[in-house]
Amino acid sequence: MDVTELHRRTTETWTSRLGAVGTDAWDRPTPCTEWSVRDLVNHVVGEDAWTVPLMNGRTIDDVGDSLDGDLLGDDPVRTGTRSAAEAVEVVADRLPSGERVHLSYGEETGEEYVRQLAADHLVHAWDLAAATGGDRALDPELVAEVAGWFAEREEMYRQGGVIGPRVEASGDAQSELLAACGRDPAWTPPQP
User: Fold this and answer.
1) In the chain, what are the domains?
2) E strand spans, 33-114
3) In sequence order, which ranges of 133-192 are alpha helices (DSSP H)?
């Protein structure tokens, strides 16, 4: 699958789950044990916000701390949807140039960076749906694409502390991807 299309479709998966978040859900826990729903959404909005300057050739130092803290404001859904649209637009515009991007660990190909973003959007779409009672089903084509890319990077991500330990999964492709990313595919929010 074309990487620009992968990014667009995984971002659409994310925004569809984001659009279904109820006003009472922002403080709920998520499968990302350190984050509430609001924290999770802020993380992905931050990724989208960083996409624009990084794809346009700016560095981490150039951006500085301008994208730190709460980026969501009073309307997290609108902010998240707008940030996602801006990220999709810049990826479609800049990725074909083949330029490298400047990430926290050094220079990277634009394609690799966009694949990282696509994986983040897809897995966090599941996290958000699981936390809010939304649609947990992910497009099998997107799951296969992300899983194929992630298979070679799983241990590196785990050793870097980006994902938790692998958990047991039922064997279907979506469950296997979630388990590889340190998620329990059967996770449900704790009951009060």
Assistant:
1) 3-180 (1.20.120.450)
2) 100-103, 106-109
3) 140-150, 154-159, 173-180
